[in-house]
Amino acid sequence: MLNLTDQQVQEYLKRSYLTVDGLWFVKTEEKYDFEVALAADNEVWKIMSKIQARLLKSMAGLGEGLQSLAECIATKFTLDGTSVEISRQDESGFEIFITKCPWHDLRVKSGRASISPRVCEVICGTNMTAFAAEFGRDIKIERPFRISNGDAYCRFIFRQG
Question: For residue 98, what are the β-bridge partners?
Answer without folding.
Answer: 84, 154
